[in-house]
Design a protein that fits this description.
The structure holds two protein chains of two kinds. By secondary structure, chain A is an alpha/beta fold. Chain A is 19% helix and 29% strand. Chain A has six helices and twelve strands. In chain A, the strands form two sheets. In chain A, strands 1, 2, 3, 4, 5, 9, 10, 11 and 12 form a nine-stranded mixed sheet that branches. Chain A starts with 5 loop residues before the first strand and ends in a 6-residue tail after the last strand. In chain B, helix 2 links the parallel strand 1 (23-26) and strand 2 (45-48). In chain B, the strands form two sheets. Chain B has a ten-stranded mixed sheet with strand order 4-3-2-1-5-8-10-11-12-13. In chain B, strands 7-6-9 form a three-stranded mixed sheet, with no helix packed on it. Chain B has a single domain (7-40, 97-218), classed as Glutaconate Coenzyme A-transferase, CATH 3.40.1080. Chain B has five helices and 13 strands. The chains are: A alpha/beta, B alpha/beta.
């Protein structure tokens, strides 16, 4: 099995350019690649587009920040495509001040858009959002007299994902519901960088337990930092 | 009659709506309280949209695992027999009609079954998260809300004014005054919670209420 380059978090950050569409796994920072996020913050890349479930937690009163909130606070993104921003007061402030564009997408639609792109599909029909603002500008298609919205696939330049364990070929295993968007994002980006808590030799992961097949992963980073 | 807000009564009543084996998704906040009042002889399976079936209570502080969290990002446990899945599978379960009940909080709910809970333009925009998918896909949609806004207006309306989370999807509304079914563009009062009366509910709700002929008074 071909082994993938094992790089540092800083080397991973160096692969991300201004203007890139960057997909970051995790749900309220559970299952986010915290080491690469920290390195990307240190590098200071701006004008990226974020695709993520949410913007992490940023409490303006307590100063608490988690996950991608560390990047959002630096205005690293010109646009964020997310399902929820309720726990990040800073992105709400940036949105209301016109500093950052926020595109809100229903969570299931966002997940399926990424899955569809990675699976070679142009899009899909969903009942979610019919009769709401989400319908604006979209084609409505009736199937068996029920209306559906045509939603198109969504791909990106770089996926930053996080797994509990990976082998040197890039086979990945996740823990708990920290899997969330990580498996989907691995399939829908030009470059996929997987941060792993535990790095093992090829053959040490039972093939039956692999959740992201190695072929999707381009680079591996050994996690140096976890976050709660 | 003086109104005293009572979230527990809302949670208690909703908890009695479930049957053994029902798959239920409880929203963050008030709906989460419902889990505390499920009768002992009823076992429901809680689904969490971030990828878990069999959501259990919060762990003791020394047992916290940050890879097992609820949809609010707080640590929880996975009950024996539970399982994990990715977000696409999770929303396949939700949209595919495999969730029996979804219980959500609302900012407004109207008598056409429209629900608004994700956006107050220019003020508060938390985002819809998984709510739009849940309301479109779940077999039964229950709106759980205190009857009144802080201003004193009822959250039950003739027409929602805020951006909708979903159109014509709400089946039941449970407030601290009573249980309502949405039918034929009206709220049908099925149960009123003591000490309130159907007359009190009608007088204090800015919507069209039909009091069912078999409307019961319930002590919670």
């Amino acid at each position: 099995m071909v082994e993938k380059p094992i790089i540092s978090a800083a080397e991973a950050a160096a692969k991300i350019n201004e203007g890139d569409v960057v997909m970051v796994g995790g749900f309220m920072a559970s299952g986010s690649p915290h080491s690469v996020i920290e390195a990307l913050k240190a590098k200071g890349t701006k004008n990226m587009v974020l695709v993520c479930n949410d913007c992490g937690v940023h409490n303006l009163k307590t100063g608490q920040q988690t996950g991608v909130a560390h990047l959002v606070v630096d205005k690293a993104f010109k646009k964020v495509i997310v399902s929820h921003i309720g726990l990040n007061q800073e992105i709400q402030r940036q949105m209301n001040a016109g500093e950052t564009e926020v595109q809100l997408v229903p969570q299931g639609t966002l997940a399926e858009q990424i899955r569809a792109f990675g699976a070679g599909l142009g899009g899909f029909l969903t009942p979610t959002g019919v009769g709401t603002e989400v319908q604006d500008g979209k084609q409505v298609i009736n199937v068996n007299n029920k209306p559906y919205l045509l939603e198109v696939g969504l791909g990106g330049d770089v996926a930053l994902i996080k797994a509990k364990k990976g082998d040197k070929a890039g086979n990945l295993v996740y823990a708990g519901n920290a899997r969330n968007f990580n498996t989907l994002m691995a399939t829908a980006n030009t470059t996929v960088i997987a941060e792993v808590e535990e790095l093992v030799e090829v053959g040490e992961i039972d093939p039956n337990e692999v959740q992201t097949p190695s072929i999707f992963v381009d680079f591996i980073v050994k996690a140096t930092r976890l976050e709660q | 009659m003086e109104y005293v807000a009572n979230k527990e009564n809302i949670a208690k009543r909703i908890a009695r709506m479930f049957h053994n084996g029902d798959v239920v998704n409880l929203g963050i906040g008030l709906p989460t309280l419902v889990g505390n009042y499920v009768p002992e002889d009823v076992t429901i399976i809680l689904q969490s949209e971030n990828g878990m079936m069999g959501l259990g209570p919060a762990p003791a502080p020394e047992n916290v695992d940050w890879d097992v969290v609820n949809a609010g990002g707080s640590p929880v446990t996975c009950l024996t027999g539970g399982c994990f899945f990715d977000s696409a599978t999770s929303f396949g379960i939700i949209r595919g009609g495999h969730v029996d009940y979804t219980v959500l909080g609302v900012l407004e709910v109207d008598q056409q079954g429209n629900l608004a809970n994700y956006k107050v333009p220019g003020k508060m925009v938390p985002g819809m998260g998984g709510a739009m998918d849940l309301v479109s896909g779940a077999r039964v949609v229950i709106a759980a809300t205190l009857h009144f806004e802080p201003s004193g207006a009822s959250r039950m309306k003739r027409h929602c004014t805020l951006p909708l989370t979903a159109a014509h999807e709400v089946n039941f509304v449970v407030t601290d005054l009573g249980l309502f079914e949405v039918m034929g563009d009206r709220f049908h009062l099925k149960e009123v919670f003591a000490p309130y009366t159907p007359e009190y509910v009608k007088e204090n709700t800015q919507a069209d209420i039909v009091v069912d002929t078999d409307c019961r008074v319930i002590e919670l």
